[in-house]
Amino acid sequence: MDTDRADEALGQRIRHLRKARGLSLKEVAGKAGFSIGLISQIERGISSPSVKVLTRIANALQVNVGSLFDDGADHDEVEGNGIVVRRKDRRAVRFRGTGISKELLTPQAADSELDIFMMQIEPDGTSGDESYMHDGVEAGIVLEGAIWLTVDGEELHLREGDGFRFASQRPHSFRGGARGLSRVLWVNARRLQGGGR
C-alpha cells in the first residue's frame, strides 16, 4: 500500500474508532493534547502522524496502538477465533518522514493488552525530537543493527542482541543507529480501562 493510501486508511480507522466511542473531534483533541485541526487532518488522511502522535491518539480513544493498524478489511485472515494472523496478512504502517515502519505481528484487536511489533528504523529514523509517554510497559530486543533509546533523559545505545524494558509512563524516544537498517522486536503492554482479554 502506498503512503497516501496508508494515511487515508489510518485516518478512516481513527475516525471509525472515535465515532464508535461517541467522541467528538474536540474531545479526542483535548484528551490527546493536540489541536482539533491536527486530528481532523489525520482523519482525512492529509497528515501523516508520528509514533508519538499515534500513541497519544490511541490513549485518547482508550485502545492499544495496534488497533490503529486495521485497514477496514475483512478479518477472515485472523484464524482460530483471533489467535493466529499469518505473515502475509499482518498490518503495517510507515511513518512518513520519520524513517520508521511498524508491523503488527499479533492479531489486531481493539481491546488487546499486549501487542508485538517489528520495527524497522533507518539510520536517520527517529520517533521525534521530543520524548513522549503513555500507559503501559514496553520491552524489546534489537534483532539487527543498533538503536539509541532515551528514557528519562538517559541515552542508551543498544546493539544486536541487546534487550530492554521500561514503564511507558517514563519519557522516552528512540532513533536509528549510525549504519544501515535496524530491526527491533518491540512489545507494548498496557492495562485497558474496564479490563480486556
TrEMBL record:
<dbReference type="InterPro" id="IPR001387">
    <property type="entry name" value="Cro/C1-type_HTH"/>
</dbReference>
<dbReference type="InterPro" id="IPR013096">
    <property type="entry name" value="Cupin_2"/>
</dbReference>
<feature type="domain" description="HTH cro/C1-type">
    <location>
        <begin position="14"/>
        <end position="68"/>
    </location>
</feature>
<dbReference type="Pfam" id="PF13560">
    <property type="entry name" value="HTH_31"/>
</dbReference>
<dbReference type="Pfam" id="PF07883">
    <property type="entry name" value="Cupin_2"/>
</dbReference>
<keyword id="KW-0238">DNA-binding</keyword>
<dbReference type="GO" id="GO:0005829">
    <property type="term" value="C:cytosol"/>
</dbReference>
<protein>
    <submittedName>
        <fullName>Helix-turn-helix domain-containing protein</fullName>
    </submittedName>
</protein>
<dbReference type="InterPro" id="IPR050807">
    <property type="entry name" value="TransReg_Diox_bact_type"/>
</dbReference>
<dbReference type="GO" id="GO:0003677">
    <property type="term" value="F:DNA binding"/>
</dbReference>
<dbReference type="GO" id="GO:0003700">
    <property type="term" value="F:DNA-binding transcription factor activity"/>
</dbReference>
<dbReference type="InterPro" id="IPR011051">
    <property type="entry name" value="RmlC_Cupin_sf"/>
</dbReference>
<dbReference type="InterPro" id="IPR010982">
    <property type="entry name" value="Lambda_DNA-bd_dom_sf"/>
</dbReference>
<dbReference type="InterPro" id="IPR014710">
    <property type="entry name" value="RmlC-like_jellyroll"/>
</dbReference>
